Amino acid sequence: MRKRKHAAIFWLFLAPVLFAFIVVIVVPFILGAYYSFTNWSATARTDDALKLIGLGNYIAILKDPSFTYSFILTAVYTVFNMIAINVVSFGLAMLVTRRLKGRNVYRAGFFIPNLIGGLILGYVWQFIFDNAIPSIGTLLGIASWADPTNLLLARSGTALLAMVLVGTWQYAGYVMVIYVAAIETIPQELIEAAQIDGASPMRRLRSITLPMIRQALTVTIFLTLVNSFKQFDVNVSLTGGGPSAMFLGQPIYGTQLLAMNIYNQGLKSDDMAGGQARAVVFFLVLVIVSVIQVTISKKREIEL
Amino acid sequence: MKKRSRGASVGLEILAIVLFLLFLFPFFIVVVNSAKSPFEITQSPLSLPANWLKIFQNMATIWTSVNVQYSSSFVSSIIITVSSLVLLNILSSQAAWVLVRTKTKLSMSIFVLFIAAMVIPFQIVMFPLLSWFRAITDFTGIPLLRSYIGIVLAYIGFGMSQSIFLFHGFIKSIPLELEEAATIDGCRPAQTFYQIVFPILRPIHATVLVLNGIWIWNDYLLPLLILGKGNSVMTIPLAVSNFAGAYVKQWDLILTAILMAMIPIVIFFLFAQKSIIKGMVAGSIK
To answer: Which of B257, B258, B266, B263 lies closest to B64 in space, CA to CA?
Structure first.
C-alpha cells in the first residue's frame, strides 16, 4: 500500500534530474563511445555522412607524437603537482594548527586563491612571470631573473614548472583545510603522552600525525591526482600550450596537457572523432589510475 | 625549556606571516597595477601607483568597453549561476529525498548510477554534447547552444550527482517519525517534503550552494563550448579570456578586468567564510 503511494511522487520528483542526466550525461557518453569509431567531424550533421572506420582513430593517436608528448607531459605534471601540493599543504596545515595568534587569518589567506578560477589566475601569473619577476630580479640584483630573454614561460621545461607553481599556489589552501580537519581530530592526550615519553617532533610526526591522517591522505591524493590530470584552465591562460618544442622530429606545443590536446584536436583541427578517441583514452587512463590509487591507499589505511 | 618554546613560536608566527604575504602577493600585483597606466606598468610592475583614483577610471573603461562586454557578461554570469543553483538545489534535494525514502532495488540502482557518473570527466562527453544539443535544437526548435537554457541544463546534468549524493547523506540522518506524523495529519507527499523536510535541509543546502556556486561562477570550458566566443551571452571567464587572450596585451585593463572578476568572490568569502570552507571540504569527500 505504502509503496504504491510513493510511486507517483517517486517518479514526479525524480523526473527532472533523470531528464537532465539522460540528456547531458548518458546520451553523449554513449554517442561519444560510438563516434570514436567513426569518421565523425564537426561539419558532418548527426548521422548522414557518418561511417564506421573501426580502430582508425585509435591507431592515429598512437602515431601522433603530439598526443604521446601531451601524455608524458601530463603524467610528469600530475606527479610533480600532486607532490608539491600535498607537501606544501601539509606543511601549511601543521603551521596553522599551532597556537598562532593570526591563524584564522593565515588560513583564510592560504585558502583564498582556490576560490578564484584557474583561467583568471593563469593570466595573473602570466603577468607575474613576464613582468613582475624580471622587475624583482632587477631590484634584488638577481641577474637570471632580470634577464628578459630568460623568462620562465619562454621554455617548455620551465613553463611546466611554472604551471606546477601556479597549481600549487591555487590548490594548496584547499588541501590544507582537509589536512587541518584531520589533524584537529587527533586526541591531544596522544601527543602529550608522546611528549612525556620523550618523542622528538619528527618522531611524533611519523608515529602519530601521519598514521592518524591516513584517511585524509587518501582523499587529498585522489583529489590532487584527478584535478592535475584534468588541468585545462591554467594551461589555457598561463601558457596557451606554448612555447613550441621539438618531439620525435616534429614541432609540437611544448606545454600542451592532455585536456588541451583533446580540445584542440576536436575543435581547432576540426577532427571531432580523433578528439573523441583521445577523450576515451583519457577517461580510461583516469579511471584506471584513480582505481589503483584508491585501492593502494585504502589497503594502507587498513594496515595502519 | 619554556623560553625556547616561546622563541620557537615567535619564529613560527613570523614564518606564517611571510608565507601569508607570499600567498597574497599575486593579489597585491593585481590591485596596484589596476590603478596604473600602461606606461607606469612598463616602468615598474612592483611600485605603488602614482594615482590610486586611476583604478576607478580603468574600471569604468572595462565596464563600458564594447570590446570586452564586461557588464553584459557580468549579468549573464549572474543569471546562469543563480538559475543553475536554484534548480540544482530544488531538483537534487527532492530527488535525493525520494531516493532515500523509497527502499526498492530500482531506487538503489538509480542512486548508484548517479554516483558512478561522478567519475566521468567532462572531456569525454563534451564533443557529443555539442552535436547532440544541435540535433535537439534542429528537431524541437528549442535553442540549446549559445543560450541560457542549454547551459543551465548542462550545469544541472553535471552538478546533480554530487548534489544528490550530499543531500542523500543528510536526509538519511533525519528521523522518519517527523514525516510519518505529517502524513497522518493529512499532508500529501510533496507537501511533506516542501513544508517539513526542505527547511531541515538548510545546512546542506548551504554546502551545495557554495560548492556549485564557486564551480559555476569560475567555470571556463563548459561555457566556452556551449556559449562559444563572441556570443551575446557570455560569462565573466569567457569575457576575460577573450580580452586577455588578444595578441596585444593591455595589462592595465586586463588586470582591472581580473580585479573586477575577483571582487564579488572575495566579498562573498569574507561574509560566508565558515560555510564556504565547510562546504568545500564536504565536497571533497565523495
So the answer is: B257
List of chain A residues whose C-beta atoms are within 8 Å of the C-beta of residue B258: 120, 123-124
Q: 0.80 exceeded by the pTM? A: yes
Number of domains chain B is built from: 2
CA dist., res. A183 & res. A177, Å (int): 10
Please give the distance of CA A118 from its chain centroid, rounded to a whole number: 11
- Strand ranges, E, within A210-263: 244-247, 250-253
Same domain, B267 and B161: yes
Grid coordinates in use for B168? 542523500
Answer yes or no: is B143 within a domain. Answer: yes
pLDDT one-digit tens code per residue, A209-258: 888 888 889 889 999 999 999 999 999 999 998 788 888 888 889 999 99
Whole-number mean pLDDT of chain A?
89
Nearest in space to A131 (alpha carbons), one of B44, B187, B234, B271: B44
Please answer yes or no on whether B158 and A24 come within 8 Å at the CB atom.
yes
- Angle between the B148-172 and B105-116 helix axes, to the nearest 10 degrees? 120
CA distance A161 to A146: 18
Q: Which three cell numbers stand for residue B80?
A: 546562469
For helices A272-303 and A214-229, the axis angle rounded to 10 degrees is 170
Sort out which chain B residues have CB atoms less than 8 A from A135's CB and list them: 44-46
Note whether B241 and A119 are within 8 A (CB): yes
- pLDDT, tens only, B47-101: 899 889 999 999 999 999 888 889 999 999 999 999 999 999 999 999 999 999 9
Best B27, B46, B100, B123 residue to mutate vs chain A (most A CBs within 10 Å)? B123
CB A174 within 8 A of CB A263: no
Q: Do B26 and B132 share a domain, yes or no?
A: no
Is B119 found in the same domain as B27? no
Candidates B278, B245, B203; CA nearest to B68 is: B245
